[in-house]
Amino acid sequence: MKKKIEFRSQCPISTALDIFGDKWTLLVIRDLLFNGKRTYGEFLESEEKIATNILADRLSILEMAGIISKKKHPDSNAKILYNLTAKGIDLIPVLIEIIAWSEKYHDVHPYAKKFAKQLHKDKEKVVRQLFENFTKK
Amino acid sequence: MKKKIEFRSQCPISTALDIFGDKWTLLVIRDLLFNGKRTYGEFLESEEKIATNILADRLSILEMAGIISKKKHPDSNAKILYNLTAKGIDLIPVLIEIIAWSEKYHDVHPYAKKFAKQLHKDKEKVVRQLFENFTKK
DNA sequence: AAAAGTACTTGCAAAATGCAAGTGATTTCG
DNA sequence: CGAAATCACTTGCATTTTGCAAGTACTTTT
Fold first, then answer.
1. Chain C nucleotides near the protein (CB, 7 A)
2. Residue B24 pLDDT > 70
3. What residues of A are in contact with residue B95 (Cβ under 8 Å)?
4. What are B52-102's pLDDT values in tens digits?
5. I need a surface site. Which of A6, A104, B37, B51 has the fewest CB within 10 A?
6. Do B27 and A10 touch (CB under 8 A)?
7. Which residue stretches of chain A are H helix?
8. Which domains can be identified in chain A, with CATH numbers?
C-alpha cells in the first residue's frame, strides 16, 4: 500500500485537494491540532467514526505527503505516535478559516461557537498560540 | 436528484467537509472566485476535466448548501448563470489559505506563485479586493 | 429547416468507502 | 509464566461514488 499521490494540475487548490480532498483527512489533522490525539486508537475514537481501513489509508497518505510523521511511543513499543511536520502545522490557518466559515453558517457544538468567538475577537492571537503549541515541542 | 446533505457531527470542520469534502467542489468555487466562470460549459473547460455528471451533482449540492444560486443568463435562455451567495463569497479566506499553504509546499503554476507573492506582501489587501469584487455587483 | 450550442441525464464499468472479522506483535494481569 | 487484552493494522466483501461515453431536450445560430 504505497501508491503515490497523482496531481491533476499545477493549481495549488487542485494539488491541495489531491492530498486532503475527501471527508476524512482533515478530520485526522483536526484531531492532531485541536484534540491532542496522537495514536491510531485515539483517531478511531472520534465521534465521526472513521473505519479502521480508511484511517490506515489516510495516515499513509498524510505521511507520504509529508504532513505527519511516525515515531515510537515512549511508553510502549506496541504504540506509535503520529505527529505533525512543519507542513502539517502550517495547515493551522486553513483549518481556522474553515472553522470560522462553518460556524458562521451552520449549527455547531457550543465549544465550537466559543472558539469562533475567540477567533472573532483576535484571530491572529489564536493562530499564534496554536503555532507556539506545536513548534515549542 | 435532490438528496439533502447529512451532517456527521456538529463539528464545524466535519460539517464543512460534508459539503465540500471531495476533489471537485472547491474547484468549482475556485473557478467562480478566481477565474470568472459562471456557466456549466465554462466549468467543464477547466484543466482538471470534471465529468459532466459530477459537475451537475456538485452544482446541485452547492445550491442546496446555499453557496451558489442560479439565475437566467441575460444573453440567452439556453444558458444559466451560476453565482456565489454571501455564504459562497465567505469562502474566500479558506481558499486563500489553501493557496498560500499549497504554494509553499508544492510545485505550482507561475501565476499561482505570483499570486502567492502578493499574498505574502499584503494578504489583507488581496482578500479585501476579492470581497469587493463580489459584493459590489 | 438543419446544425450547433447548452445544460444536463443515463447506463455501465471501475474505484473508493464502509463494515465486520481477522492477524500478529506487544503488554498487562493473575 | 501463560492467558487475555491492547494496539496497529489487514482482509474480504457489499455498497456507494466516480468516471467515461453516449444520449436527451431545449434554445440559438445559420
1. 5-11, 16-22, 24-28
2. yes
3. 13
4. 999 999 999 999 999 999 999 988 999 999 999 999 999 999 999 999 999
5. A6
6. no
7. 12-20, 25-34, 40-44, 52-64, 86-89, 92-105, 110-135
8. 1-90 (1.10.10.10), 91-137 (no CATH)
